[in-house]
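Chain A, query sequence.
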Amino acid sequence: MLVGDHDICAMKALSPSMFAIVLLLAGAPVLAQNPNNMVGGSPFNPPLPPPPPSPSMAVPVVPKLGVASPQYSGPSYGYNNAPHPHPSFHKRVSRCMAEAPAGGFGPGDRDAYVRSCANR
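Chain A, predicted structure.
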């Protein structure tokens, strides 16, 4: 046979069988790469995780008009309306300023008394 001489009839006869071989070889790795197509799956695959819990269907509490809201003890819940354990510095100074004349302190001694009284 010469380089330019082709036997078309032989090629036509071989093409369906070559096509079938190519399909078989190309399809075999696809089946081999999926181990879960076997009955029972693969022993190397971990089991599936459990399904997530269902969402809570609890109805939230609706605040009522004219009813006091509950107080929460946590730092991130609501407001802490409890009184402070000690008065603020401003209130202590005001109280000491009011007590100074009753204690008999003059204008020169009043400053020292208020400082020591407010810092107690």
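Helices lie at 8-32, 89-102, 107-118. The mean pLDDT is 75.
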